Amino acid sequence: MRFWPRSLIGQMLLAVAAALLVAQAISAVLLWRAADSRRDQAALNTAAFRLVTDNVRQTRRDREALTDRAERRNGRSDRGDRRRGDRRNRLLGAGQTGGFPHVLRIERSDASPLLTGEKREPELEKGLTSILEREGLAVDQIVVLERAARSDPFVRSRPRLLSRVSQQSNAKMQLIVAGIRAPGDDQWRIARALKPPPPEGAARSIFLQTLLIYLFLVGLLFLLLRRITKPLKALTQKTENFGKQASETGPMEPQGPEDLRRLITAHNVMEARVAALLDEKDVMLGAIGHDLKTPLAALRVRIESVEDEVERGKMAASIEDITHSLDDILSLARVGRSSLPPEKAELSALVGSVVEEFEDMGEAVSLAATSRITHPVYVTWLRRALRNLISNALRYAGSAEVSLTHDDARVVLTVEDHGPGIPEARISDMLEPFTRGESSRNRDTGGAGLGLTLARAIAEQHGGTLSLSNRPEGGLRAEISLPSAGSAH
Length: 489
Hints:
Radius of gyration: 48 Å
Largest sheet: 5 strands, mixed
Shape: rod-shaped
Subcellular location: Cell inner membrane
Structural class: alpha+beta
Helix content: 40-55%
Keywords: Cell inner membrane, Cell membrane, Kinase, Membrane, Phosphoprotein, Transferase, Transmembrane, Transmembrane helix, Two-component regulatory system
Strand content: 5-15%
Region (Disordered): 60-98, 465-489
Number of strands: 12
GO molecular function: phosphorelay sensor kinase activity
Pfam family, one: HATPase_c
């Protein structure tokens, strides 16, 4: 299956659409990563706040403990008991809050929070260090990692907390675990903060946004490319029509971008010059044909006065040879210059009439398989090409077999013989002008070498090809292959 289009607009649209798709995919990934980074930063800030708050509380507790000891020495221990009772009440009140994040209190541990198989987050560690330094909290060691809430040892050691985690709507709840150890402290202080889950439908929102932008850009690009390539398509069509037939359609109006306008203007100038040259060639060929055929006709009359029949026959043959060569040259120069469009013809009838002409002359020409095919052709020219192929087969093999076949892709006229064929190295050369199967210039053994060249030019005039190949059982096969544009019956 072919995925790469052939047209310019198709190739440009596919290439740019693919580039836009890659760019939009990268943009979507970057947006998702930026959102994930913001959620990481929010959780990190929460963990940092808890560590700083715990440090402040620890400092306050240390000061209160010093004050209590001083008061007990002075006999005022009741004040310390009252403060401890107030502090205990505040802690109990804090523990009674029903929000899930509040139960993730600071944990003290002798070991680092990093478990086997887990990876540290260097970027988050740098961020936490920066926050703590701004708050004046000295840190000797720091570890930050991301962990699934359900696999956290602190959560799993508390059944009620684990149950609460399991009841959350987001089964993939993540925690940011931050552990620090202060200088001179032999224990780690570990803070846990819930990483905010992505907003519901965030992935779908990013996908839809990316898809809408992509469709808008591709649609806009398609309209722009169609506007640019429309005059180019018209120019291509005009050039193809000019190549097929010299019809006077007038110059094409320049349109489109400046580059295309200049191209169309240059094409109009070139087409006008080519048409003028072709017209001059036709006039020149007509003059040559008239100026040469008139004296040849006069010579044909004069040789009647030659008494020697043998010499008179040789002279007449020479004049006939010159006349045929002149006709071939003029036909080769004029092929493709018809100002009339091709006409639909029944090809089997055309082939049959050509075969009958040779049969009437006693030539060994037979008609093989044929199909009833209606196809637009230049009847006179195609008849001429078929005659040339049959004459070539009769000249070198003494017989010819003609067939007509077709399929969905092409129509094929085939002429086969049982002669010696052509050496493989010379097959392509035989289609060139003045190339013959043997080196003599005797018309009885080879003619002027223009028959196959003219047949090839006629096939190309119809948008087809002429091919030569040696048959495995011996002989030559010549095929005129035309694109299947007619209807088969």
